[in-house]
Amino acid sequence: QVHLVESGGGEVQAGGSVRLSCAASGRTFSKQVMAWFRQAPGKEREFVGAITWVDDTTYYTDSVKGRFTISRDNSNNTLYLQMDNLKPEDTAVYYCAASRPYYNGNYYYLSRSDKYDDWGQGTQVAVTS
Predict the structure, then answer these.
(1) In the 8-state DSSP scheme, what is residue 53?
(2) 129 vs 118: CA distance, rounded Å
(3) Is the Cβ–Cβ distance between 115 and 105 less than 8 Å?
(4) Model confidence over 90-119: pLDDT tens digits?
(5) Is-contact 87 127, C-beta < 8 A?
(6) Residue 107: helix, strand or coil by DSSP?
(7) What pLDDT is attached to residue 1?
(8) Could you say which DSSP state residue 43 is in?
């Protein structure tokens, strides 16, 4: 099991940028798919993006493509989400998630929340217009 802690959330104006971090405990971070999900008030949790452990391939939901960038630093067990050109509809609680070690897949599988075993507590991002 991996313990995940997100940080970096806050309030930002539309068009601005925020970088979220997710610090992971344990020894298997470098062998796990890592993902970001978000949940807006009154809505279901949705997939934002993921990064594989095999070759750092990234996947994004259409609404954030070209604006959000996921990266990972295996030497520091940290996952990042760089969010640029933010919009009010990006307002949500953002969660990082970790798959079981050595799991891999394509967008169809990696965008599903049930493919992730460990979750952080979430960090709030509020985008004002």
Answers:
(1) S
(2) 33
(3) yes
(4) 999 999 999 999 999 999 999 999 999 999
(5) yes
(6) helix
(7) 80
(8) S
